Amino acid sequence: MNLTTTIIQTMTSREIAELTGKEHFHVKRDIAKVLAEAGIDPSKFGCTYLDAQNREQTEYRLPRRECDLVVSGYSVPYRLAIIDRWHELEQQNAQPTIPATPSIQIASEWLGMAQLLGVPVHAAQVEAVKQVELKTGIDFRPLLAASPAQDAIKDEDVMLEPTDIAKRAGLASGKDVNKLLASHGYQYRQNRLWEPTDKGKPHCQRHHWVRGSKSGYNYKWNYNIVSSLMGENNENN
Description:
- This protein has helices at residues 13-20, 24-37, 64-71, 76-93, 102-117, 121-136, 141-145, 162-169, 174-183, 223-236, and strands at residues 10-12, 46-50, 56-63, 159-160, 187-190, 193-196, 204-211, 214-222.
- It is an alpha+beta fold.
- The protein has three domains: 10-93, no CATH class; 101-153, no CATH class; 154-237, no CATH class.
């Protein structure tokens, strides 16, 4: 979501009068004449102010385009004074640029790629936070827990590590879950690590972990898939 607010900078007819040495009523006359000739309604830029005697007076507030149009017929020194003043106003109005921190850059890259690949938001957030912790040491899991996306996970999108699946399903350990998945052709052993087969890939998610100075990866599996495999085993038995 873009939360940037665009501020339109203006210059008053009084400022133009001060910069050019003209009488204010002459400047207002010029503004009304030039804008009308350009087919622009001068009244849309009209406003009021209180003078030194607390009396209400009229003036114009012009954006840069209309101001440049009005003073285009003024002498070079006057136009230069207006240009310099615009530069000052724009510098004052410039918003400071906040540099992206490494954490934001890492998270943005992961979330952006996840969006391109159609990864569910809740899963992408989990992996982004893990990558940030892996590469910067900063743990944003407390913030992750407060994310609305983490509270709106559909049952079919629930991904859990084998140990957590075992606890939920009433199995002895995560080893039982891994054996179940392997027996149904969803994963296989390679170099002492479990890897998903083509059949299993749509139902799992690579999961990076960090414990102190150590890190690695394993796989989270869709709980509903494992539950259905358990049901098949029960029926066969």
